[in-house]
Amino acid sequence: MPKRRAPGHGPSSGAPLPPLLFFPKAPFFREDLGNIRQISCKRGCLSAVRTDGTVVVWVGAEKGGDPQSHPRSPRRIKLKKNVKVNSVDCETSHLLILSSEGKLSEHSVDFQNVKSQPRLLKELGDKQMVQIACGDHHSMALSKGGQLFSWGQNDYGQLGLGGEMTSSREPQRVQALDGIPLAHIAAGGSHSLAVSLSGSVYSWGKNAFGQLGLGHTEDKYFPTYVNALEHKKTVFISCGGEHTAILTKDGLVCTFGAGCYGQLGHNSTCNEVFPRFVAELFSVRVSEVACGRWHTLVYVEDLWKVYAFGSGSQGQLGSGRTCNQLIPLPVDLTEKGRKSKQEGSASEEKIKVIAGDNQSILLFLKKKNSYASINQTLARIEEEEIDKWISDSDPNCWRNKRQDIRLIFSSVACINGSFLNKSQDEHFRTSQEASGINMSAVLLFSDKIAKNPKVCTEVTNAVKKLVRSQYYPATSPEALRVFLILSVILRKQDHLSDWLLLRLAQIIMDLETEDRQTLESLWSSLDIPFFKDLVDIYQRLSSDEISFIIEEMRNSEMVDNYWDAPFLILQVLYEVNSRTGFKIQEKNFYVPEVKYLLHFPIDNLQQVFTEAPCILDMEAKILLHDLNRRVLHCMFSWVCFIGEPGFDVGGPSQEFFTILGRELCAPEAQIFQLFEESHLIWFSSQVPSEEDVHFLIGNIFGMALYNKKIAAFPFPLALFKKMLNVPLTLEDLKELSPTEGRCLQAVLDEQYDDILESMMLDFTVRHTDAFFVAFVEKLFISAKLQP
Predict the structure, then answer these.
(1) The domain spanning residue 221 has which CATH number?
(2) This protein's superkingdom (predicted)?
(3) What letter would DSSP give residue 586?
């Protein structure tokens, strides 16, 4: 994409800037200018991570709102020997310290002193953290395994744990986001947000000013999907006291929430309950965004410019004035009495923007500086790393490989964050119609690890640990990708993989209805080869399971409770196949070996055949029918007419069903409507309401079937198409009512609209069944008529 240009001049010649600018000025900070790796500036506390891995803390820098007040002498915090600090963040009561090893410590602070030594958060166990975020009175941490933890006050639901608890002293897992691969987390005053690797944004907590972006001002106690940001390619979030800003991959900035000081950048002091793009920044490609309590900073790397807007009461906008700015205006990147940075060295440096309560900090870094690495994401499989995994060229690295494999494949979030389809940013379009997964990459990975038994064993063992855990995925397409990925990876034929697929099938069948429907939509979006592979996997698994069941029954052993899961999955896939217009032939769903189960007394066998009829080929259906006839005692095993003595050898039974059909189809019965022209019947609206006549007629059909007799009810083909969810056409209406069909066809065939209008056609639909109404509605649309 070409670079966007902004109004104003670019960097001019002159002396270079110092490594840090602080608005308003803070002389006390100068002693550490050359060795800063990261800075956090929040209420009453300013902390910096030095390149040697230690932390420097100034407490009281904001007390009383006077940024020029001299705080107490800085205190240096050092973790245990050889443990370096990766990043810090703070709230009003404590400082969070994340080590380079992923361990999280808490350090109590107040305006009087910095207390004791950092306390390791043992509640997180051996989990490795990669990101931290602090609000005013709550904290969050994201683990490398993809789990989000929160603790602190919960007055507005900012912990995402529900509204039952007012606070939590210990980190609690935010289960509502389980399985979603999160890329970034952010905490505002009393609200929280998270964005996934595919750009889905979730918000929760206080929403008095619309800072959750949900279109209203109701607080949310659980993470809620922000529909307005769907497919916007969100990659970063920043939260202010009562407002929020998001950054898209294309460099656009969206803001929402409180706008009382102009901190939203919309040339207004109005609040925004829906995300709204900052129009003044359309001409530039923003690289970073940072929200202070009542102001916002953005950095445009292409132009080496910083823009500020919002509250300027303490000089935090860097303009030298104390007035507010309603639109983004460039910050004068000069020190008093010195010119701006030389243009020639701009390519060697970058700027990190930090927004505090009433401060703004610009940190000038070499581009190779490690600052950018402090916000790491969850572990996942990258295509360029796959060959390293399966390579034996460096046996000394196997320990790290094994740890990565175990972490990724025992985490649903990590699996869901892998194999993303990055071609033309396809994974940012993830929805019920698109999984965002590169299924070819999954297949390639499966084939590659199959050639390395060591890696393959580690993967299957990790998945075994996963499926044994209680997994309840979030209601999101991103959380359900795991079922697409694991089905391919476990398709190799061995005992453990088959066992895992069985458990996976049972988990799928136990999903909530909404989640199952979402998964079915993802299945329907698969390309035909991958969909057929999925069907083949469960068809083969069903066949193998039958062989295993027969062996168990012969040995008088109990049948596994999960034995029917692959059959039920096949039926779901069959229904998906039907809804999509039959991607593959029905024979792909047959399980011929199922007929061998008919000879064993297996519980719920009949129920399985009823729930998964797609697995039965014609031979199995005939065998099942004959078996049921022998087992069930049909009430019409023989028929005797009064005055006609003798035994029923078939004739009287058939005559009984013939007479019964004739009487029920007669017009005077008012059960069916007879169409004299076609001699076919359809359902009548005059059916007596005191009893379910149609249900009783269904029983008659069943009895006729079991007795191998004909029940002559002359229905049109349309009835059977409706039973199979096959779309009806005008030809079906022509079969039932030829005259109506021909007339409607003539209207459709008329080429001139003015002739149709001159006819002044008036259609009256007397039939209450949707079968007729649908035809007339389609007719109006096709003929461009007004109903």
Answers:
(1) 2.130.10.30
(2) Eukaryota
(3) G
290 and 234, same structural domain?
yes
Q: Is residue 626 part of a domain?
A: no
Q: How far apart are CA 304 and CA 1, in angstroms?
A: 17
Band the pLDDT of 342: cuts 50, 70, 90.
very low
Are the C-beta atoms of residues 428 and 478 closer than 8 Å to each other? no
Between 435 and 393, the higher pLDDT residue: 435
Percent of the chain with pLDDT over 90: 41
The residue whose two tokens read 């697929």 is 501
Cβ atoms of 768 and 683 closer than 8 Å: no
Residue 731 has a CB neighbour count (10 Å cut-off) of 11
CB atoms within 10 A of CB 101: 12
Q: For the segment 357-386, what is each residue's pLDDT rounded down to a tens digit?
A: 888 988 887 766 555 456 688 999 887 777
Instruction: For tokens 């066949």, name the residue.
Output: 543
Strand partners, 104: 98
Structure tokens at 229: 């940001």
Q: What is the pTM of this model?
A: 0.80
CB 180 within 8 A of CB 196: yes
555 and 445 within one domain: yes
Cα 234 to Cα 239, 248, 404, 518: the distances in Å are 14, 4, 27, 22
Order of all β-strands in the sheet with 138-143: 129-134, 138-143, 148-153, 167-173
Residues with Cβ within 8 Å of 509's Cβ and at least 6 positions away in sequence, in order, are 565, 568, 569
Rounded CA-CA distance 421/428 in Å is 9
- The tokens describing 127, both together, are 């989990």
Last residue of a domain, one of 715, 747, 768: 715
